[in-house]
Amino acid sequence: MKKLDLAQELSSNAYPGRGIVIGKSEDGKYAVTAYFIMGRSENSRNRVFVEDGDGIRTQAFDPSKLTDPHLIIYAPVRVLGNKLIVTNGDQTDTIYELMDKQQTFEQSLRTREFEDDAPNFTPRISGILHFEDKGFNYAMSILKSANGNPDSCQRYTFSFSNPVAGEGRFIHTYMGDGNPLPSFEGEPKLVGISGDIDSFTDMLWTNLNADNKVSLFVRYVDLESGKVETRIINKNK
Predict the structure, then answer these.
(1) pTM higher than 0.90
(2) Backbone phi and psi for residue 6, each to the nearest 5 degrees, phi listed first
(3) 1 occurs within a structural domain
(4) CB atoms within 10 A of CB 142
(5) What pLDDT does 137 receive?
(6) Residue 208 and residue 10 in contact, taking contact as beta carbons nearer than 8 Å
């Protein structure tokens, strides 16, 4: 598989929707995770990321303008023991709660489907990092309709062991803008990961569409010490 330039992938797509990047830093020292949200409606754009314990949650920037919290207010990132969960919806809680009861990542997502936002039927994308012995592995999932047919839910899980330094995978909800919005297709894209947390964060934020981007979360986890560094950027300030 050809390694793609992540900056180019972002800058060439006006509306990838919500996206997850997971991989390993170029120097091999850090597990890297990023999650971004975008919006076309006033309700979707009226959001910010805020820290919530070891994770983050979305909240309305201007509560007086919040018209429907359904599908837009949730905890994208939670930590369960040595696992970091990141998703584009309230399936974060489903994964957290069922894995806490000894179910697997894949099993927990069998209880969920794509979002009920006809006609888009937005895919639910999820990722999980499992840290152990100064290393990590990760998995990604997408739950999507059958080419816009909500009668069938198609579930795909991709697992990545012993990640390669300087490489990651990128999955997002939409192939691009449209009406209805076309769901992501194929396996998570192989992308390069370079730079420290600040340069990586800046690259992501700079290349997201200026009109549609809303918030960005980036986390680097030191595999030797377990130390965590997090960056959050909100368009609304």
Answers:
(1) yes
(2) -65, -40
(3) no
(4) 26
(5) 98
(6) yes
DSSP 66-135: ----TTTSS-SEEEETTEEEEESSTHHHHHHHHHTTT--HHHHHTT--S---TTT-PPEEEEEEEEETTE
Q: Residue 43 and residue 65: Cα distance in Å, rounded?
A: 7
User: What would the two tokens of residue 133 be?
Assistant: 């012995």
Q: How far is CA 11 from CA 52, 116, 184, in A?
A: 30, 28, 17
| Residue whose token pair is 């303008």 | 65
From residue 44, alpha-carbon distances to 23, 90, 108, 165, 179 in Å are: 28, 15, 27, 35, 16
Q: How confident is the model at residue 237 (pLDDT cuts 50, 70, 90)?
A: very high
Which CATH number is 96's domain given? 3.60.20.20
pLDDT 10s digits, 30-43: 999 999 999 999 99
Quick check: helix, strand or coil at residue 141? strand
Structural domain count of the chain? 1
Look up the domain containing 126 and give its range.
6-234
Q: Does residue 15 lie in a domain region? A: yes
